[in-house]
Write a structure and sequence with these properties.
By secondary structure, the chain is of the alpha/beta class. About 20% of the residues lie in helices and about 40% in strands. The protein has three helices and ten strands; from the N terminus they run ββαβαβββαββββ. The strands form two sheets. The chain has a six-stranded mixed beta sheet with strand order 5-4-3-6-7-8, sandwiched between helices. Strands 1-2-10-9 form a four-stranded antiparallel beta sheet. β6, α3 and β7 form a beta-alpha-beta unit. α1 crosses α2. The protein binds inosinic acid (IMP) and magnesium ion. The site of inosinic acid (IMP) has 18 residues, from β4, β6, α3 and β9.
């Protein structure tokens, strides 16, 4: 068990299981984007680790960009997605692969969706290491899902609780 700020967390998903999920996503992306020079768009801060793992497994040419959005306050979503750092590179007419650490309510994805339509990308798909089906409220499909998980608050592998826990190499869930 570990403690971050005032809360206790217990081990939930091992590093091996995470690696396996990343390899499954990467295999599919490598197949779908062979010869296409896609732009990987990581969503900061949480997706920095997943992005590096997926991008280093990509076998063709690709470009990398990041966008920073925020909605979480403590252990729940504020429902209000803010753009904290926008896109600096043109992605017009490009194949874009969004990389997320986790898709929860889908509010963040909806905001990104809007940004990508405005930027006139050729097409885009979404890759997320974790997906909480019970929390998801949108219709847009999440194309590459590493693992579906229960509706619990988790930390580790990029995911934080008020800034802490991103460096943990396995995933922990909030102890109730
Ligand atoms: P959504 O907008 O509700 O889908 O939430 C997406 C963002 O909220 C993710 O990219 C995370 O940064 C954060 N988030 C959602 N669930 C968790 C969690 O269980 N732990 C830590 N952060 C989370
Ligand atoms: Mg995130």
């Amino acid at each position: 068990m570990i403690q971050l700020h005032d809360l206790k967390f217990e081990p939930f998903i091992s590093e091996e299981r995470i690696t396996q999920a990343i390899e499954q996503i990467s295999e599919r992306i490598n197949k779908d984007y062979s010869g296409k020079n896609p732009v990987f768009l990581g969503v900061l801060n949480g997706a920095f680790l997943v992005a590096s793992e997926i991008i280093k497994r990509f076998e063709g040419d690709c470009e990398v960009s990041f966008i920073k959005l925020g909605s979480y306050k403590g252990t729940s979503t504020s429902g209000n997605v803010e753009t904290l750092l926008g896109l600096t590179q043109s992605i017009k007419d490009r194949h874009v692969i969004i990389i997320e650490d986790i898709v929860d309510t889908g509010n963040t994805l909806e905001a990104i969706n809007k940004i990508l339509v405005e930027k006139e990308v050729k097409d885009f798909k979404i890759a997320s290491l974790f997906f909480k089906p019970e929390a998801y409220k949108k219709k847009h499909p999440v194309d590459y899902i590493g693992m579906e998980i229960s509706n619990d608050f988790i930390v580790g592998f990029g995911l934080d609780y008020d800034g802490l826990g991103r460096n943990l190499t396995q995933v922990y869930k909030l102890k109730k």
